[in-house]
Amino acid sequence: MNAHRPDDDAPDTAAPAPGPGRVVLLTTSHRVAPGLLSWPAWQALRDADRVLCADEAHPQLPYLREAGITVEQAAPTAEDLVDACAGDRTVVVVATAEGEPRLTDGLARLAGSGRLRMPSLELLPASYDLPGARLLDLIQVMDRIREECPWSSRQTHKGLAKYGIEEAYELVEAIEEGDRDELREELGDVLLQVVFHSRIAEEDPEAPFSIDDVAATIVTKLIHRHPHVFGDATATTPEEVKEHWLRTKAVEKRRESVTDGIPLGQPGLALASKLASRVRTAGLDVPLPAGDGIGYDLLAMAVRAEAEGVDPEAALRAAARSYRDAVRAAEGLNA
Q: 176 with 317: CB under 8 angstroms?
């Protein structure tokens, strides 16, 4: 009796070996409300064979579980993760704030060894920062500094006033020097003053306000003073925009004079230039006051500079820098 032997020419019907699987590293931004994830992220979470997270206090976990996602609290090694993906399984790792560098480095080492069939590794951002999101970090840092720093916790609006002036001048200097790195840093210092004062204002027992109130106020002001952008008004030149701005501002402030609201404590040349600008924009014919002395000469020069579109303060600073260089040259020093 002949034993049965399969036909050597018969097609191979054996099932293909299962693949090594897939690892999805799911990243989220703490600056976006938890639970607000992208559709691809939700799809990956629902289709996964396992969902792991090392941080049991991860802010996303309550929302994932509310949506019916089973999340295991686990911190697998790279080897553990490769084993978990065996059989063509998908494992989603909800990344912690640090981004799981230990895990990704371990997977990279295993892949480089060539000893294992590695699962595919996919980085899937589940939420993205919106423009301005880092401002939230600044607010959080300021909160902590205000509470824990012995110096910052004692500061008042009056105590910080001088720093606002200093930072504004340093910003102007960075602009005039054309130093981009310095400009970015000085803008940050000016922004810090706004956030710091706003944080102090939250503690006022009678009239508190927050950084959100500050932002809301300036947003409302900008919209109201740009009717040519947000309304039906028309402005085609910078001069027309300025007229809109001053006219709207006068109504808001109920000012009687074009000089109302001009801070008289600012540097003299800037003050004279600002007054001249208001006079010219309002179409007034105001002769310069008669008088003798350098003050009246400087006033006339400031008005002339404004009429020619020159900032007299900036012009004098530029000339003063040249004078400083000449002094250093006379001293035998480099400019």
A: yes
One-letter amino acid of 90: T
The torsion angle over the Cα atoms of residues 197, 203, 204 and 206, rounded to 10 degrees, is: 140
Q: For 7-156, where are the alpha helices, taking DSSP H only?
A: 39-47, 61-66, 78-85, 101-113, 134-148
Q: Is-contact 52 93, C-beta < 8 A?
A: yes
Residue 254 pLDDT: 75
Q: What is the per-residue pLDDT across 281-310, written as a single tens digit (0 to 9) for each? A: 888 999 999 888 999 999 999 999 999 999
Is the whole model's pTM more than 0.85, yes or no?
Answer: no
SS3 12: coil
User: Residue 124 in 3-state DSSP?
Assistant: strand
Percent of the chain topping pLDDT 70: 95
- C-alpha span between 235 and 228 (Å, rounded): 6
Residue carrying the six token digits 């400019």: 335
In this prediction, residue 2 carries a pLDDT of 47
Element housing 212 (H / E): helix 211-224
User: How is the chain split among helix, strand and coil, in percent rounded to 5?
Assistant: 55, 5, 40
**Pick the residue with more confidence: 295 or 247?**
295
